[in-house]
Amino acid sequence: MEIRPARPEEAALLTGIALRAKAYWGYDEAFMAACRAELVVDAGVIERSATTVAEDGGRVLGFVSLSGAPPTGSLDLLFVEPESIGRGIGRALFEQARSLAAALGLRRLTIDSDPNAEPFYLAMGATRIGSVPSGSIPGRELPQLVLHLATP
Q1: Dihedrals phi, psi of 18, to nearest 5 degrees
Q2: For a FRET experiment, which of 4, 44, 92, 94 has its CA 20 to 30 Å from that of 102?
Q3: CA distance 72 to 124
Q4: Direct distance between the N- and C-terminal alpha carbons of the chain, in angstroms, rounded to an integer
């Protein structure tokens, strides 16, 4: 598996991964339609943020996207193709994001997590600090986590 920077022309591919990975948790069509806009990755997102993909045999299996400026950033998106979940791809992408964030001078990453993904982030060292309203589902609260990064 290779981890490399995403390319702007991969935007539709990454959007497809995000939508399939979100649907993996059993959300219905109405839920998926309501949150679709938040999951769309366009070329501008890739160009403005630090977006990295995991590729195996020429196939992109997942991606992660960071944004922000020192000292605080956010882990905006982290999705893995459903059939590849459990193979360590999410962990590899998270570790890449952690290293890249530290190299960019970030000392802290916030993560507004899907409730189903919260255990993964906690296992990766993040701590829950509260909750935030969903940007697409009125009345829904999302776990908010923070990851403190080591100072070089």
Answers
A1: -60, -45
A2: 44
A3: 18
A4: 27
Give the pair of three-digit tokens for residue 1: 């598996």
pTM, rounded to two decimals: 0.94
Instruction: Show Cβ contacts of residue 57 under 8 Å, excluding neighbours closer than 6 positions.
Output: none
**Which residue(s) pair with 65 in the sheet?**
51, 77
Domains annotated on the chain, with CATH: 2-148 (3.40.630.30)
DSSP strand pairing (141-148 vs 2-5): unpaired
Amino acid code (one letter) for 88: G
In our burial notation (b when 16+ CB lie closer than 10 A, e otherwise), range 70-101 reads: eeebbbbbbbbbeebbebebbebbbebbbebb
Parallel, antiparallel, or unpaired: how do β-strands 108-112 and 72-80 relate? Answer: parallel
- The pLDDT tens digits of the residues spanning 96-141 come to 999 999 999 999 999 999 999 999 999 999 999 999 999 888 899 9
